[in-house]
Amino acid sequence: MTTVQIDLSDQLAQEAQRAGLLSATAIEKLLRAALRNERIEGMAQAREQLAAQPLPPMSPEEIQAEIDAYRAESRRAPGA
Fold it and tell me: What is the pLDDT along the chain (80 residues), one digit of tens a residue?
């Protein structure tokens, strides 16, 4: 367990206290929501980058070659 100390203005601290936002449970919930939003934003940015620079389509032969290479690597991995 980690203890965190933060400095807030008196007004903000009072408002947060009245709203029940300064309990450990409430702060944990706020932090988890913020982290989830950060991950979602990161995924949205990655999706935009992929859409801006799409990969060229692969032929059926290229797809099969990738599958074969993956299977060969998978067979080697346990005893590597």
Answer: 899 999 999 999 999 999 999 999 999 999 999 999 999 999 999 999 999 998 899 999 999 999 999 999 988 866 65
Rounded to whole angstroms, the Cα distance separating 54 from 58 reads: 12
Establish how many alpha carbons lie within 13 A of residue 78's alpha carbon, considering only the half-sphere containing its beta carbon: 3
CA 5 to chain centre: 26
Domain boundaries of the chain, sorted by first residue: 10-79
Residues 6+ apart with CB under 8 A from 26: 20
Looking up tokens 């389509």, which residue turns up? Answer: 57
User: How far is the C-alpha of 18 from the C-alpha of 11, rounded, in Å?
Assistant: 11
Distance in angstroms (rounded) separating the CA atoms of residues 15 and 67: 58
